[in-house]
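Class prep. Sample record?

___
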Amino acid sequence: MPVIELRGIKREYRMESRKKSTENNGSDDVVVVRALRGVDFCAEAGEFISVMGPSGSGKSTLMNILGCLDKPTAGTYSLDSIETSKSNSDTFAYIRNRKIGFVFQSFNLLARTTALENVELPLFYRRRENNEKRQSAHARRERAIRALKEVGLDTRMDHFPSQLSGGQQQRVAIARAMVNDPAFILADEPTGNLDSGMTLEIMGLFQELNRQGKTIIMVTHEPELAAYTRRIITLRDGQLVSDVQVAERRNAQEDLAQWNRDHALLADKTAS
């Protein structure tokens, strides 16, 4: 059973044109923008998929639907056996909290709370299932600590975001995304604010999490990042035009080691 299954997904936006129509007694014309035009897409548990496409291709619209931030105009979207297309706002809130781990380009950490407290937040606002007991403060803290250890930040738990590098802040954001054990992680340009070395660190972390069985969907416009994933889907004009397995997948940890060696040599030449 797929974790994600989209069938015939369409998303249309209706906007009033500024031009007056003489044929309609001077009333405003309605312009229909077809952002998605019948997308079929499935993702099995444990996949690492990148979503690519030029500007205006429908990537952001698809991401919003995958993240249950928007509803399709037509079609069905099943997430972890929950049909979301006709869900109400309460169900959407539950799905976003329990089924999806969000990772954003700008980290979206609370500036005045520590790394540990940032990771605890989804647990504090955890949407409970029927007859599910509320977690104790101690249980929330222990679960957040485990998530930070998993991303290699067990020595930075009491640091504020301003005391962390960009790569470390994104690691906190990834720990926060994982802490509720979601059905999948949805990453939107997760390395867009990072330099090359930190980018390789984050891609290496995603690859390691994927090796552990995490399902990851990453929206990116960079082919070199998509090469670290297992599968690439490409959108154009609101349609899925390509869905291919990555034949020669790059290893981010190996590339990071080479990047460090190259920079060490450059530093030595500069010093001499």
